[in-house]
Each structure stands twice: as structure tokens, then as C-alpha cells.
Design a protein that fits this description.
Helix content: 25-40%
Strand content: 25-35%
Distance between the termini: 48 Å
Shape: globular
Structural class: alpha+beta
Number of strands: 7
Largest sheet: 7 strands, antiparallel
């Protein structure tokens, strides 16, 4: 059987849903992404070859120091939710993105979500462009609609949520 993009995406979704992945990925994926992003001067994120991604720069909630975190995202607007496997393809951004604090299905909220709650004005590196943004934590019906869109975009988020008792935080970030 030929290897297709859809098969690769399905295989990665299955692997990323495994508990072992949740233990290993948080230590490996961001480090690789940061290194490649730095070496390519912001033009490439390895993980963005499968899912769109940004590097979020936000001041630390406690330290106030800039923190750089590579994150998968779901572009909204012009690029819309093209679905997994669309990687970093597409033109420009619609000006907003959804960021999901899944923490790979681990128990605690990722630190970057606390940083955004404390300092909603941040910056994202998107396809080599540094963009000032403002973040807003979604709640209620707006969160539910975003959650449905995120599950259609990357189904393993449902597995991550099932593993934890906390409600996974979802942020909408928009250009300032």
C-alpha cells in the first residue's frame, strides 16, 4: 500500500495519543523546535510540518522575563482550520489563532498558559514574521465552539482531555 499524507497523519495522531508520548514529547519536541527555529531565523518549525505552529513569546507570570514556547496552533480566518497535515502551507494569516493548553494530556496546565493569563499582550513568530498579539482565554459557548473546531482539526485533543480532570485552556490570540 502506498504511503499517503493521510496515512502519515493518522499514524502520528495515534502515536501522539499514547501515554508514553505525553511523557517524552514535552521534553523533546519544544527543544527541537526552538533549535530549528533559531537556526532558520524563525522560518521553520519542525512540528509545523504536520500541524501549523507559532513560537509564542510572553513575559513569565512570576519572573517577568521573556519566555519562548513553540506551540501547535489552529489559524483562523483566511487560512481557516484546514486540518491536520496542512502543516505550514497556506498564505498569510487571518489575524487570529487558537492555542490549546493540552500539555500533551499531562495533569497540569502548561506554564505558558499562566504567563498569558498574567500578561495577555505577547508576540508570535508565524512563518518568519514576528507579530504582536493579545490573548484571551475562551469560556462558555465560545470555548465550546472552539473546542469542536479543534477536535475536527486534531482529534487527539479528545484523548488528552480524557486523561486529565482539568479543563484544557483554549486561547484566541489576535493581532494587536
Amino acid at each position: 500500500m502506498p504511503v499517503t499524507a493521510a496515512r502519515v497523519v493518522k499514524a502520528v495522531q495515534k502515536v501522539s495519543s499514547a501515554p508514553a508520548f505525553a511523557r517524552i514529547a514535552p521534553h523533546v519536541v519544544p527543544a527541537l523546535d526552538r533549535a530549528v527555529h533559531r537556526l532558520t531565523r524563525g522560518k521553520v518549525l519542525l512540528s509545523a510540518q504536520l500541524l501549523p505552529g507559532v513560537v509564542l513569546t510572553v513575559r513569565g507570570a512570576k519572573s517577568g522575563q521573556p519566555r519562548h514556547t513553540p506551540l501547535a496552533c489552529m489559524p483562523e480566518g483566511a487560512e481557516g482550520a484546514e486540518g491536520a497535515g496542512s502543516g505550514s502551507e497556506g498564505s498569510g494569516s487571518g489575524g487570529s489563532w487558537l492555542l490549546i493548553g493540552s500539555n500533551f494530556g499531562r495533569t497540569g496546565h502548561p506554564a505558558w498558559t499562566a504567563n498569558l493569563l498574567a500578561h495577555p499582550d505577547a508576540e508570535v513568530s508565524w512563518k518568519g514574521e514576528d507579530i504582536p498579539v493579545r490573548a484571551r482565554l475562551l469560556a462558555g459557548e465560545e470555548r465550546e465552539a472552539a473546542w469542536k473546531a479543534l477536535l475536527a482539526f486534531w482529534p487527539p485533543y479528545a484523548t488528552y482531555q480524557a486523561r486529565v480532570e482539568r479543563e484544557i485552556r483554549i486561547f484566541r490570540i489576535v493581532r494587536r
